[in-house]
Specification:
about 25% strand; Enolase-like, domain 1; about 325 residues; alpha/beta; about 30% helix; TIM Barrel; globular
């Protein structure tokens, strides 16, 4: 069946400045791919990420390069060979899933052999700031069951102590985005454990994470930048306790399902995460959230506005997408 592929950039302002250890931004620039056939349209969204050598221009070029085979009918299996893991493949893979579901009149979870998605607790992320500013934000979000704290190298324990006081009932996870050294990890991890932190995400640079092997980990450590696809897992054994599955890293739901199965087989706990995008980017990831110990699909909560028919976020939970949005 012939298809028509269209794609382009969209800009979504954030509610405010959002900072992590490697920089800050006030808007999210996403790419949306739309695939039409048989009177139906499927779509998918991706967020190009400079940390992985991606830009809006490079991802648009990747999609343009495979436009002809996609329009001629290349399927999801063929897409795995046409493009490498990353944002471009994610947008196209999710558009293919959505189009297939609409043409079949069946939800994606059924096509994928997955249980129906359910509402799950999602983390709410606090951007990097001073201990005092993060504590104020934590107090405003204290009703949320799970907070994710972006941290740098400075005042780690002071920051988390202030947040714990401001949100005493919330579960806490932290994300260093590769900012720490082995010595800093060893210094702060016991204190973070005492403060009730449940997970430390990517403390060391991916290229230096061999230092985690055999190291005491009083708080479980989760691979993010170090884990993109199933083939990465072998090198992570002994270094990490969990892996963060993001569709913009795996290159779509198809490869994410492979990563989930392989990670479970190797005994890794699962986290499902996201870049900052709209509900369209979160919807496919909701299908694997049932498998995860930690879910971090709060991207739309950080935006000034979301798409029409966006995901329902209530009581600290993200609810599955409606058919009007995706899948």
């Amino acid at each position: 069946m012939n298809r028509e592929l269209t794609f382009g950039q969209e800009v979504w302002p954030l509610r405010g400045r959002f900072a992590i250890s490697r920089g800050a931004k006030t808007e999210s620039r996403v790419i949306v791919a739309r695939l039409a056939a048989g009177g139906r349209q499927g779509w998918g969204e991706c967020v190009p990420y400079p940390r992985y050598g991606e830009s809006i221009a490079s991802v648009l070029a990747q999609i343009a390069a495979v436009r002809e085979p996609i329009q001629r009918g290349a399927d999801r299996a063929a897409l795995l060979t046409l493009l490498p893991p990353g944002a471009a493949r994610n947008a196209l893979d999710c558009a293919l899933w959505d189009l297939e579901a609409k043409l079949a009149g069946r939800p994606v979870h059924e096509l994928a052999g997955l249980p129906a998605p359910r509402a799950v607790v999602t983390a709410y992320t606090l951007g990097l700031d001073t201990p005092e500013a993060m504590a104020r934000t934590a107090a405003e979000a204290a009703h949320r069951p799970l907070l994710k704290l972006k941290l740098g190298r400075e005042q780690v324990l002071a920051t988390v102590t202030a947040i714990r006081a401001a949100a005493p009932a919330a579960r806490l996870i932290v994300d260093a985005n590769e900012a720490w050294t082995p010595a800093l990890h060893d210094e702060v991890a016991p204190g973070l454990a005492r403060l009730g932190v449940e997970l430390i995400e990517q403390p060391l640079p991916a290229a230096e994470d061999a230092a985690l092997a055999g190291r005491p980990r009083p708080v479980p450590v989760c691979a993010d930048e170090s884990c993109h696809v199933a083939a990465d897992l072998a090198a992570l054994v002994g270094r990490y306790d969990a892996v963060n599955v993001k569709l913009d890293k795996t290159g779509g739901l198809t490869a994410a399902l492979d990563l989930v199965a392989a990670a479970k087989a190797r005994g890794f706990a699962l986290m499902v995460g996201c870049m900052i995008g709209t509900s369209l980017a979160m919807a496919p990831a909701c299908l694997i959230a049932n498998e995860a110990k930690v879910v971090d699909l709060d991207g739309p909560l950080l935006l000034a506005r979301d798409r029409e028919s966006g995901l329902d976020y209530a009581d600290g939970r993200v609810h599955p997408a409606s058919a009007a949005l995706w899948g």
